[in-house]
Specification:
The complex is a heterodimer. Chain A has helices spanning 16-24, 31-36, 64-68, 95-99, 127-131, 143-149; strands spanning 2-6, 44-48, 51-55, 74-77, 82-85, 106-108, 113-115, 137-141. Chain A is of the alpha+beta class. Chain A folds into two domains: 1-56 and 123-140, Alpha-Beta Plaits, CATH 3.30.70; 59-116, Alpha-Beta Plaits (2-Layer Sandwich). In chain A, strands 1-8 form a two-stranded antiparallel ribbon. A two-stranded antiparallel ribbon of chain A has the order 2-3. By secondary structure, chain B is α/β, with parallel strands linked by helices. In chain B, α6 crosses α7 (138-154) and α19 packs parallel to α26. The longest helix of chain B has 35 residues, at 74-108. Classes of the chains: A alpha+beta, B alpha/beta. The interface between A and B is medium-sized, with 13 and 17 residues.
Chain lengths: 150, 635
């Protein structure tokens, strides 16, 4: 099961990943379409104490957002390691936004529902990975981190 | 430390920022935070948007692309971006100079009735320099001077007239390097040409082009602006004034002039005293009309009339947020687009006056030199009429204000030092030679919300004067020191070293001298040349125990100023964030090391005012050693 990893020291804060994310989730997958449809990027680069932190949903194994969802719009798919958001069932109460310990879920005020990284489910890899000009974003198997630590 | 004191050391600013937060008005500091993180590629100078094959970016970590689509590497891209900024900065100062020259020409033709020649001596000196027959009637001399100066902009060959003001050794060096500027416009155009896609790919050659372009500003456009403004509006004399937001008055009509060109604001000074308008103000319930300035327009009217200064670059929104400004009249440069939104939160009328600088939806009253007074009067009248719309409950003016002495020029410094009858730079040179004075430093430039407002300017100035270095300041930097109280002669006793203190006491000047606006940085160049001409301190500006700094810079103009200082031989340190070239090791090392071999001076980048002072002092000491000057008297 692959996950997104970030090399903080390489992030230059150019926000290309945010733009690529919006494009990947726009109808025609072009920049102009994304702007026209006001697509909100599902990830955001934050700045804190001189460092840039790209942040998106971590699809946690322990997931307070799924537990808190009163509409049953959030389901955790163990096999894929993915928190799946059923937009049809979502009532836009923002409780998931509030309980997320990372602040990784973004409220889309225009559409009145929250959005989160879906790891670009229909693609081989998330759009942000390719978009990063400094390869600060890695798309790796979970045990990758263990190997790096070794 | 609370948020406000992190943003500025100025208590007046902190107070108004609290008011802004209470009233939910965004300021430059809030917008800065919204911009974080700022794009690293742009900060490193590694993003190229020159052609439509791009935009291209170079990966500074070496894993991704190392050249753009055209093949340009990090050196070419960083140097090209920097050269473009130098050309943009030079164009701003020089176009300012052109407008002043144009006014002088209209005056000579009898079309600008509201102006006259106020410094006839300086006119004569300039005419002599231009080899114009002084026996001609004055109107003819004025016309000839104006025409010859206007021609400097379009000149195609030879060199700019004012280049001759530089020490001979420097002139020869410029000629040898091929960076002696020919015409103001030509150098700007040529630099822009070389940065086109597929023209100049050699970073050293691009920097050379930028140096040449900057010289056409420092010894061209800016110098023209300074000299002709002195001729038309009168040369400044030492004058008392007041500074900071406290100069706005609760029971007066407050008019704020903001921008850079003094030609119109000069008329505003007159119009604010117009008996008809003063009477109208009294009818509206005000005590009178209070004119104040922001940025370099403020410096210009301060230097010549002692008009109070409401603040520097980062004060522009805050002045409006006090709720007490009836009209903010703006011309060109450094005018934040945000002013429109801030003004819309109050009764304040923002008025644009220059055809080159307009805001959508903002009232525009166009300035023409032919009917200058009429235009100024119209704008002041709008302010007076707007007084009744002021919401008195929302007015909150901080009390902070400080006294200052401004109005120093290269001519005045020399008269004060030598006395009226033996005007000379000798005493200044002697002071440096004998070791009473360690050296001279110029601190110039803007403010930048990246840093604590004013902290860098004032800390650096205090550190330098403590070490017996006479500090010359212009622009927003001078206003920062003024607010801190460094521009009053008494401040020398508290902050200056013993040697500098003795000089200040003997001749009655502050340890920090206010030389005027940003174009008046040219006064520093000419003063340096005069010091060399006086003798005893080497043959070139690069021999002088002197250094420059722009601790809180933000504008492209600051880069250009830095370039012409370095090209003239002055070691210059930049604060805030460095030039956007750090992504290229070659360009960075060229600017901070190798340039020294070429022009005898180099850049340094430093984000700590104490370290910055140390760098400058070390440089000055090194130059003293090379000149074999006496050891410092008090150390």
């Amino acid at each position: 099961m692959k996950r997104l990893y970030y090399r903080i020291d390489k992030c230059l804060g150019c926000r290309s990943c945010e733009i690529a994310c919006a494009v990947a989730h726009a109808g025609e997958e072009t920049l102009f379409c994304a702007i026209k449809q006001k697509v909100l990027p599902r990830k955001k680069v934050y700045f804190f104490e001189g460092k840039n932190f790209p942040l998106s949903c971590l699809h946690c194994k322990e997931h307070p957002c799924v537990d808190a969802c009163m509409a049953g719009a959030l389901v955790y798919d163990k096999e894929k390691g993915l928190v799946i958001h059923n937009e049809e069932r979502c009532v836009g109460c923002w409780i998931c936004v509030m309980v997320c310990p990372y602040g990784a879920i973004r409220p889309d005020i225009n559409r009145k529902i929250p959005v989160r990284c879906d790891k670009c489910k229909n693609k081989d890899e998330p759009a942000c990975v390719k978009a990063c000009p400094t390869t600060a974003i890695l798309w790796q198997e979970e045990d990758f981190l263990l190997e790096v630590k070794k | 430390m609370d948020k406000e004191s992190k943003r500025s050391i100025d208590i007046a600013v902190q107070k108004v920022l609290k008011k802004a937060e209470e009233e939910n008005i965004k300021t430059v500091w809030d917008r800065f935070e919204e911009q974080l993180p700022q794009c690293g590629f742009s900060q490193l100078g590694l993003c190229c948007t020159v052609c439509n094959m791009g935009p291209c970016r170079i990966d500074p970590f070496g894993e991704g692309a190392q050249t753009g689509i055209c093949g340009a590497d990090s050196d070419t891209i960083a140097a090209r971006n920097l050269a473009r900024k130098v050309a943009a900065g030079a164009s701003a100062h020089s176009d300012h100079g052109r407008d002043v020259a144009h006014t002088l020409f209209l005056l000579a033709e009898g079309k600008a009735h509201d102006y006259q020649i106020l410094d006839k001596n300086k006119l004569k000196e300039l005419a002599k320099e231009l080899e114009i027959n002084l026996d001609l009637p004055e109107e003819k001399i004025v016309k000839e001077v104006a025409w010859r100066i206007l021609m400097e902009f379009g000149k195609q060959q030879d060199q700019l007239i004012f280049i001759k003001r530089a020490p001979e050794k420097r002139q020869n060096l410029w000629k040898k390097l091929g960076i002696s500027p020919r015409g103001v416009d030509r150098e700007i155009v040529e630099t822009l040409h070389t940065t086109n896609m597929g023209v100049d790919n050699d970073y050293k050659n691009l920097i050379k082009s930028a140096l040449k372009c900057s010289l056409s500003d420092g010894w061209g456009g800016s110098m023209i602006a300074t000299d002709l403004q002195d001729i038309i509006l009168g040369s400044p004399q030492p004058i008392r004034g007041k500074v900071n937001l406290g100069v706005l008055k609760e029971d007066f009509v407050n008019i704020v002039v903001h921008g850079h060109e003094p030609i119109l604001s000069e008329m505003a000074v007159k119009a604010a005293k117009d008996p008809e308008l003063v009477k109208l103000a009294k009818e509206k319930g005000a005590q009178g009309i209070n004119l104040a300035g922001i940025c370099c327009t403020a410096n210009e009217v301060l230097m010549r009339h002692g008009i109070p200064v409401a603040g520097n670059f980062l004060h522009q929104e805050l002045a409006i947020i006090t709720g007490a400004v009836e009209v903010m009249m703006v011309d060109v440069q450094c005018i934040m687009p945000a002013l429109k939104d801030v003004a819309s939160c109050f009764h304040t009328k923002l008025i644009t006056t220059n055809p080159k600088a307009r805001f959508p939806g903002v009232e525009h009253i166009e300035f023409e030199p032919q009917k200058a007074y009429e235009v100024a009067k119209k704008i002041i009248r709008l302010g007076v009429e707007n007084f009744s719309y002021r919401n008195k409950d929302r007015v909150n003016i901080p009390k902070q204000q400080m006294d200052l002495v401004a109005g120093f020029t290269k001519e005045i410094v020399f008269r004060i030092l030598g006395g009226r009858y033996r005007a000379t730079y000798r005493p200044l040179n002697e002071a440096i030679i004998s070791g009473r004075l360690r050296g001279i430093a110029g601190i110039v430039g803007c403010n930048n919300p990246k840093q604590t407002h004013d902290y860098f300017h004032t800390t650096l100035a205090k550190e330098l004067i403590k070490n017996d270095i006479l500090v010359l300041q212009t622009g927003c930097s001078a206003i920062a020191s003024a607010k801190e109280g460094l521009l009053i002669p008494e401040a020398a006793k508290e902050y200056a070293g013993k040697g500098l203190q003795e000089i200040c006491e003997a001749v009655g000047i502050p340890a920090v001298l206010h030389l005027g606006s940003c174009v008046d940085n040219s006064r520093i160049l000419t003063a340096a040349s005069e010091i060399i001409a006086e003798g005893g301190l080497g043959e070139d500006i690069s021999d002088l125990p002197a250094a420059g700094a722009a601790p809180e810079w933000m504008s492209e103009k600051a880069i250009t100023i830095g370039f012409y200082f370095v090209a003239s031989g002055v070691y210059t340190v930049f604060g805030a964030s460095p030039f956007a070239v750090l992504g290229s090791k070659n360009v960075s090392s060229y600017l901070t090391k190798e340039l020294e071999e070429l022009v005898g001076a180099r850049f340094d980048f430093c984000d700590d005012p104490f370290k910055m002072a140390k760098l400058m002092i070390e440089h000055i000491d090194k130059k003293r050693e090379l000149l074999k000057l006496k050891p410092l008297m008090y150390q």
